[in-house]
Amino acid sequence: MKPYDAVAHGARCSVCPLRGRHQPVGPSGPPAKRAALTLFGEGPGWQEVELGIPFVGDSGDYIIRDPERSVLGELGMHPARVHINNAMSCRAPEKDYGTFLAKLNARHKRACDAARKRGERLPPRPVYPHVACRPRALRELQGSRVVLALGAWAAWCLLGADKITPIAGYPFKVELRPDGTCVRAWGLGGHEALVDGASGGRVLR
């Protein structure tokens, strides 16, 4: 099996702080445009990294493989009809991604403080993994009929929203440019929130 090339699919691995940690984990299942459903998670766990396949751990059993108790089983949908992907192709060293981001920001702050003391130019802000990987993820989601975002970072990647809690659990219609960038996302079902991906992901109420 040929290793997955995230860069070829649009990821900005050269500026990502997770670059080189392990082989990126690519999507599985049929292409998104041919799938009946796309499951879109946040990122791979250690089991996914070892096998190079998304959703093979406990979450995969719960959502996909258990014939009696899985989410797909309850929907009566065969896994072969589902495209599976993640917002990030690589796994952060910390179990909680928010903890990783906090450490990354703290390290950048220390570097800035040291540069000020020496009278040097401040180092550039780090590029977060979910930002570096977003062009790749959205490009691979092109043509999806229905995307189920599983987690806050998956929802951020899909919608570009700066606030996830007000829109959690609501359906959205998403418009993507051919290059994979999100233009707008309209709230459906009477929900008033509108995500404007073209203006930095503001949630408009």
Q: Taking Cα atoms only, what radius of gyration do you get, to the nearest Å?
A: 18 Å
> Any low-confidence stretches, pLDDT <50, length ≥5?
188-205
State the total count of DSSP E strands.
7
Approximate helicity band: 25-40%
Number of helices: 7
The SSE order reads EHHHEHHHEHEEEE
Name the strands of the widest sheet in spatial order: 4-5-6-7
Distance between the termini: 47 Å
Could you characterize the architecture of this molecule?
29% of the residues lie in helices and 15% in strands. It has helices spanning 46-51, 58-65, 71-75, 97-118, 129-132, 134-140, 152-159, and strands spanning 37-41, 82-86, 147-149, 172-176, 182-187, 194-196, 202-204. A four-stranded antiparallel sheet has the order 4-5-6-7, with no helix packed on it. It has a three-stranded parallel sheet with strand order 2-1-3. Strand 6 and strand 7 form a beta hairpin. The longest helix is centred in the middle third of the chain and has 22 residues, at 97-118.
Overview features:
single chain, alpha/beta, four-stranded antiparallel sheet, 29% helix
Summary of the model, kept short:
This protein is of the alpha/beta class.
SSE topology sketch:
Elements: E1 37-41, H1 46-51, H2 58-65, H3 71-75, E2 82-86, H4 97-118, H5 129-132, H6 134-140, E3 147-149, H7 152-159, E4 172-176, E5 182-187, E6 194-196, E7 202-204
